[in-house]
Fold each of these.
Amino acid sequence: NLSSNAIKEPNWLSFVKYMFYFIPAWTIWADLKDFMNYYFNDDLLQKFYVVFILALLLIYDNNVEFIFESRNALLTTVTAYFLARITLAIMLIFYSIYVFEHRTQMRLYSATLIVTSSCWYFLLLIHSTAGIIVFSAIWLILEQCCFVICYHPWTKKKLGLTHSTALNIEHEDERLSAFFIISIGEFLLGIVSGNALSEGWNTKVAKGIALLIDAFIFLELYSHKDGSIRATHAMRRSVSTALGYIYIHLPLIASLLIVGDAGADLAKLGEPYEEERGVVFFFSAGIFIALCALTIHPLLDKPKDDPKDHLVNRYLRIGFRIPVGGIILGLAWTEWKIVTLIWIDTLLLMLLFVYELFAINPRSFYRANCGQV
């Protein structure tokens, strides 16, 4: 919903607003995800907690788009976000009574949640768009820093703790991957819902098929990472790589949501498209950001392969993602028809995919199928 609204007036300001709308929603989801990761038992209290958070997200989503035009919408949005975070603090304090091993860490994070979430009400004293954006940027960064500090091993060491929280890596990876797949679904929703591509064979269908191929390629790039046969997962490697793995999903998913919605918008359009140039930039820039994130994503793992296992080293296997993204971004300045532009972008992604398909295969594959390599 946030990404769909962002492309109604596609410009840099709407993109910045979109990110500031998206990050708090992501944060609320991440709070719930992490809490369930640590303390899931599926009792009645947790069921009510989930429903309550979903209700707050519903209120947040229906008001956040209007915070610059309506003070009532701003108050409602801030209150929904405040209640979501303060509820987590209350849950942590309540659970700390019984989970004594994590008591210090839980109460420390609860204290930061109470302070930081309460300070969001200062937004009501700001009346300029720039002021709201600057304050929000500072406070969103501060909130993430509080989370990192509270759960970092350095804090455990300084506080002399013998126990601390630990992620269930399989659970965390499963949730992040599920969110990624939902963002891929955005490519298809826009071109299917309401028979958006019209009847018969036409250019809209051609553009829709191109978007379908794009979605498939992004899913494959995410799945095969850098093609390592054996690797230590980023969340098992170190604290820094674990945090990097979690946070790289934020720009990755946010950008793919934009690509999916912008692509669907372009697919529905006729020609020419002069009035929709902003949508083209959203589409191309989203692909560029996604490919940058998909380059960092596999590099956070630690490969255990022998260099002789592959014909091409890992950096060359995935090293063309950013250049291809840069070319696609550059093509946004061309005057081509939409169908031409989308298919050129898709062909570039297909070339990238085919190259990686062969580059990631180990030497043993070629020995078995093509003789000595």
Amino acid sequence: ALFALNTNLNGTVNLVFRDNIPLYLGMLLSTTQVGYFAIAFTLISTITLALDPFIAPTFSEISHTIANLQWDTTLRLLQRVTVLASGIVLAIAGFWALTGWWLIPFVYKAQARPAYPLLLILLVGYGFSGIFQWNRSVMLSLGKAGYPVLVLILTGMIELALIFTLVPQYGYLMMGGILSGYFIISTGFISLRGMWEVRRRHLAA
């Protein structure tokens, strides 16, 4: 029951603090700046597409090793998945960083070039989240489904406060920085707690 409750609550939290970002953009920024985000999100989606096939198998393996109290195997699995995801993220991010300055104007016309610095900012946050995409899987497998929800709510409230306070004055790059910060802080806290919990149980065993 707690698992179902926290899973559905997690979806609601993501809807408010992550998936509704286009609505906040439309409220606070000009149509041109919203267009920059549309371009950046399109390019960043390549990271999500590349990592999506790993999420379900990783969750399956993590839950299996934790259920069998194979803490050493769990740690090795997390390290290998992190290294694999890091390679994919760095390759894609490096490609866009090297080519985006010329490719964006070529595909979307010269007026779209200001989307390039936004792309670099968002690559940091989305890339970090992609590298540690196993963070919630670990907490669910450990029976601590409520911790990710709590972290997302707290960081999301700060995110929204910063968005409505700073973005109207400082524009689309500030929005990108806040969004990346949200991903880094929330993913970082959940990943650290998950790794700490697995190591603690490994030492206790």
